[in-house]
Specification:
Blueprint lengths: L18 H8 L7 H9 L3 H22 L4 E5 L9 H8 L4 E6 L2 H5 L1 H4 L7 E6 L5 H8 L10 E5 L11 H10 L6 E7 L5 H13 L9 H5 L6 E2 L5 E2 L17 E7 L7
Parallel strand pairs: 1-2, 1-4, 2-3, 4-5
Antiparallel strand pairs: 5-8, 6-8, 7-8
Helix pairs in contact: 1-2, 3-4
């Protein structure tokens, strides 16, 4: 059940593209505006593949973690609801799972009620907050999640919207340091080293819309997992990450993805 009622959404700015709405368009959603569609249409066709691959990776990772007994999820950078949402995946396996969704885009708040439709046994909550305030997110998440037990932290296609001058490494470190042993970090990130020409084109088109990107190499993405135990198959492309059969179809990808557990001794 939901633990609260979302606050009244602020007015949505339809004059500027927003990452969540562009992502919604790439996934074939309808909760976007012409300004967002214009950005999406200027992107290379592979951008739609990347959005789909990101979503499928999240589904597989969430289902596997729930099957491993993880029943608490903190999803930051949630985006506009697209079924099945994370809580639906987790609660299919663990009906009592508790999920906290976090996003800073007002349009996501407008759709938060869809994220709060939990199983009767479980709980979902929506927090409007910015990943650049990890301390504030953790304080509010603790109202719903028990940080003395494992929590899965989900950062799907989020960190490449944080250039290096916004200290993404420090943000992830603060979030991960709050997780108890047995917790997990689920992360996907656009690559700068897999298809560099396409990555440059995507970054330029987002920049035209006033959205800064910070695509990264595999080694740079691997730093987000420092001190954690990467789960097999390690840090791979999004379609290559799976733990149970059937395996995803083999396809090209410009997305690095991985899942890691917090070791029993905590993070280094």
């Amino acid at each position: 059940m939901p633990t609260g009622t979302p606050p009244t959404p602020p007015r949505t700015d339809t004059t500027r593209a927003q990452p969540a709405r562009v992502y919604d368009w790439l996934l074939g959603g309808k909760d976007n505006y012409p300004v967002d569609e214009a950005v999406g249409r200027r992107l290379p066709p592979q951008a739609k593949d990347a959005a789909r691959q990101n979503r499928a990776f999240m589904h597989r990772a969430t289902a596997w973690l729930a099957d491993q007994g993880v029943d608490q999820f903190l999803d930051i950078g949630t985006g506009i609801p697209t079924e099945p949402n994370l809580h639906q995946i987790a609660q299919r396996v663990v009906p009592a799972a508790r999920i906290v969704y976090v996003d800073n885009d007002p349009i996501v708040l407008r759709h938060a009620e869809a994220l709060l439709v939990s199983s009767p046994e479980g709980t979902t909550e929506y927090v409007q907050a910015d990943v650049r305030d990890p301390g504030g997110i953790l304080r509010r998440a603790r109202d719903v999640l028990d940080f003395s037990r494992p929590v899965a932290l989900s950062l799907i296609a989020l960190l490449h919207f944080l250039p290096d001058d916004q200290d993404p490494q420090g943000i992830v470190r603060e979030l991960v340091d709050a997780l108890p042993p047995g917790s997990a970090l689920v992360l996907s990130h656009a690559a700068s080293d897999l298809h560099s020409d396409l990555a440059r084109q995507v970054a330029e088109e987002y920049a035209r819309a006033g959205i800064r990107l910070g695509f990264r190499t595999r080694d740079e993405v691997a730093r987000f997992f420092d001190g954690l135990d990467l789960v097999d198959p390690g840090l791979v492309t999004a379609p290559e990450w799976f733990r149970t059969e059937p395996a995803p179809a083999e396809e090209d990808s410009g997305i690095h993805a991985g899942v890691a557990r917090v070791p029993s001794g905590g993070t280094a």
